[in-house]
Structure formats: C-alpha cells, structure tokens
Amino acid sequence: MTGPIDPRRLTTLYRLYDADSQLLYVGTSVDPQNRWEQHAREKLWWSSVARATVDWHPDRTSAMAAEHAAIQAEEPLHNDKATTDEVAFPYRGNRGPSAETVLRRAAVECCAALDRLAV
Which of 26, 54, 71, 84 has its CA 20 to 30 A from that of 12? Predict the structure, then answer.
C-alpha cells in the first residue's frame, strides 16, 4: 500500500499463534493478507505461525488502541511492549525491545537451537 493511511478506514487487529497456541505477534493492518506476506518475507519467526485470528475495528485509532492494550496484557513473543508513556494517540509505535523481551527472545532461540541439535 502506498500513500498515507486513512485513519477512518476499517482496520484489523490480528494475532498470530504457533502450533502450541503461543501468541507470537499482535498487529494492525487495513490489508492483513498483504501485511502477512510482508512478515513472511522479513521475519524469521514467520515459519512458526500456525494460525491467525482477526478482529475488525471501525477505524485505525481504535485498532491501534486495542493493539497497544493487547501487547501490554498478552505479551506476544515477538512484539516489543509499548510503554505507558506512548498511550497518547495517534499511536507512535514502540521504542524498542524491553530487557524482558530481549531475554525472552534469547531463551526461545536457545531452546530452538537445542531442539535442532537433539534431532
């Protein structure tokens, strides 16, 4: 998609899960299929995605507010938690991974590497 995003446009909040139903990622998009194709090209974790859920919101602002709340409450493995300082809208995204997120990612990568060695 090119050009500015219309904040009044119908927007999805999606959740991506692995085969064990672990929440991998929460995101928003006006075109989830296109966004998932982008994830598939860019994200190493994409191969772990087994299913997705999609909730439609009437506009981008409400979808992004729901995304922020979901990231905070559900702690998806591959999202960086937005800080409470970023609640002001329009939503400006995350400031980068917290120490907890970095450690959680390292633990998952370590376990995956050990699993590969065990095979």
Answer: 84
Neighbours of 46 (CB within 10 A): 17
Q: Which residues of 17-31 are buried (b: 16+ CB within 10 A; e: fewer)?
A: beeeeebbbbbbbee
Structure tokens at 34: 């296109």
Query: What share of the chain in percent tops pLDDT 90?
Result: 50
What CA–CA distances, in Å, run from 21 to 17, 44, 62, 74? Answer: 5, 18, 25, 13
pLDDT tens by residue, 24-39: 999 999 999 999 999 9
pTM: 0.65
